[in-house]
Design goal:
Largest sheet: 7 strands, mixed
Radius of gyration: 17 Å
Order of helices and strands: EEHEHHEHEHEHEHEHEH
Structural class: alpha/beta
Shape: globular
Number of helices: 9
Distance between the termini: 46 Å
Helix content: 40-55%
Strand order of the largest sheet: 1-3-2-4-5-8-9
Number of strands: 9
Amino acid sequence: MSQQLMKTGEPYFYLGGEVGCLLIHGFTATPKEMSYLAQYLAEQGLTVLGIRLAGHATQPKDMARMKYQDWITSVENGYKLLKPLCKKIIVIGLSMGGALTLTFSSFNDVDGVIAMDTPYRLSTSPMYDQFRLIFSKLFSKFVPYLKKGPADWFHPERFSERISYDVNPTASGAELIKLLQILRVQIPKITAPTLIIHSIDDDYVVPENSEMIFNELTTSSKELFYIEESSHVITEDGNFEILFPKVYDFIKKISEK
């Protein structure tokens, strides 16, 4: 039985040149979350694919059934679609999408990696993360969904256009913790040039997360870039005049090599 997608929940594809960009949205969101960036990159002549992660953009109960491996598979499927069309592939993700970007790029042949406002862990200590993992599994049996709190955006008019689930599936929170456990092991294995971007105003995933990711990277080409006047969802409520050219300049340098 087919699933009814939320409005703007569809993946999108822009055919351009031989450099391809694989865009990965975040936790409970939809491909639309990356659409402004996708359009900008397409206008620069790049080939762009914005994927839909498994269990997203339909109903929260669909997401609650998914494992973190399903989300990695979604990224892998997008990569396989781009690979025959492009000589170089840049993987770009936001938040959990950034965690998927880094994890996927650690065991696949990619030419560039961009991770934005990406969590390193959900708490301040590994022990507390483990406690949250166990608690989430148990808690999900009694409280399957948690209502999201209010969002504080720099551009409220953009928030009114945002499409995502209005709840967080508790079971999915446990899967995110598992994904981040894998991420922390895999970061040193990334060999492609990597750009880490974080909003200094992000109070959802604080900037220290990107600092920890950056410090764990062993690739010879890495950069940590901070941006102001942007909330956590930097691709929708961000300083586009700075963010988008920064992303493109990084891609352009890779494409010219």
